[in-house]
């Protein structure tokens, strides 16, 4: 699968480090360690990984909610410095948050929640904004009666629809979906995913889906990047990666997921031990200490992404060498 | 807070209702005392000296023959006004400084907190007395000093509230909605942090009412001679047999302080339920 056109969001070598002070010593935690990513109009790229893999920090670094240490982020081909003010990037790139209970201001009414981004970003007239609020409600299939309610008076599904409508209010090109259905019950989940897919088609949006749920990824994403300890260890088209995972970590992730997420054939991989400390990393592969396939060279050299099959990259020289 | 009085009444416990009723009574008394008193509170000799409370002089008269009821009523406005303005000032300034310290952290926070700690290392009442003594008597000086001394409580409280909420997703969402840091603080974090501050303000007002009259009592309050409960008590302390000269202004302080305390306690109760 080839990506058509120029990327709407392109991330190169993004690295985000935190300095942690404990018992007088300063240590550096590398939460995101050199991530490359491209998003295209009308397409969804997913980033999957366990908690602690750095996928949320990646999203927050792209949005500059945390300051990245190194790397470049181009929004529609423009670097951050091309924007007059830092917050102007949020006209082009928005986010749907994981938990709408904590991402909606409990004191604001739905009308004000939807109005605020348009008032601050677009400086449209009140009549214009009122018309757009009605459009947004229709787009996310909410009744106008909820405009005067506060978040506490909404159901979980309604809240997440409000969160989606708020993200779309300024007509962004790129929307980051941070576990958009994690806080919803199973019946609402599917409805919200369908809604997101329809909104993408109608507005030609580029989505970056942050998720740990392969089911969600399979359902709405076109490409997927698997993250482990801050690095992308495998990336490619969703169907291809889930059916023929090349990296032992991806294989283990799929094996750990409920059966419905499977569908391909590959050997079963069981990782041993815990995610190692993000401090004190050994120079080799991030997975080496837990990997049943690890060889001596795995602990000494950091493998880089290599093309495994067309458009399908993985950072594992061991499986790369083996016949499938 | 914008709810109609009827709603407020239903949603608060009995103690808060009693406090609110007392506060209303004091406000009416303050207003009446401004417009009308049975006798001129500043004129001695409207009656004989040391008259016990009776039909002509409800609260009796003092050593100079001035009407204690008229003086007490006229002083109500002073004490209520001083308390409310000092609390409002401490609330506003402490609120802004605390919010700024809590949101931006870093050296701003460090500086604000160290100054606060120095301020808090003095006993508050003693500090207030020393400051008014140094600055001189006067309405404005008393208000400024009492507000200044009361400020750390508000500052610390809102700082903690803002600091706790700063990492919440709705603060990030507010940035994405186009807010600057100050916008996030003013539009989202501060409004969500005010409830505990309001209950603290009410409890703190009870303390302020006592400090204000304490300053009057030791003679470092507002201009000597103007009606104020604390200085009235001081005026009656040489006459232990004529208890009414000190008793009624004392009851005034008690009522004012109790009213605020009950309301504050009631708000805390409501929030904890």
TrEMBL record, chain A:
Record domain ABC transporter: where: 14-254
A GO MF term: ATP hydrolysis activity
Entry keywords, A to Z: ATP-binding, Nucleotide-binding, Transport
GO biological process: peptide transport; transmembrane transport
InterPro entries the UniProt entry points to: AAA+_ATPase (IPR003593), ABC_transp_ATP-bind (IPR050319), ABC_transporter-like_ATP-bd (IPR003439), ABC_transporter-like_CS (IPR017871), Oligopep_ABC_C (IPR013563), P-loop_NTPase (IPR027417)
Protein family per UniProt: Belongs to the ABC transporter superfamily.
Protein name: ABC transporter ATP-binding protein
CDD domains named in the record: ABC_NikE_OppD_transporters (cd03257)
Database matches in Pfam families: ABC_tran, oligo_HPY
TrEMBL record, chain B:
Stored InterPro entries: BP-dependent_transpt_permease (IPR050366), MetI-like (IPR000515), MetI-like_sf (IPR035906)
Segments passing through the bilayer: 80-104, 125-150, 197-222, 242-263
Pfam families reported in the protein's UniProt record: BPD_transp_1
GO terms (BP aspect): transmembrane transport
Recorded topology in the membrane: Multi-pass membrane protein
PROSITE patterns on file: ABC_TM1
Keywords in alphabetical order: Cell membrane, Membrane, Transmembrane, Transmembrane helix, Transport
Chain ranges of the ABC transmembrane type-1 domain: 76-264
Location of the protein in the cell: Cell membrane
Domain of life: Bacteria
One Gene Ontology cellular component: plasma membrane
Main subcellular localisation: membrane
Family: Belongs to the binding-protein-dependent transport system permease family.
Protein name: ABC transporter permease
Organism: Dactylosporangium siamense
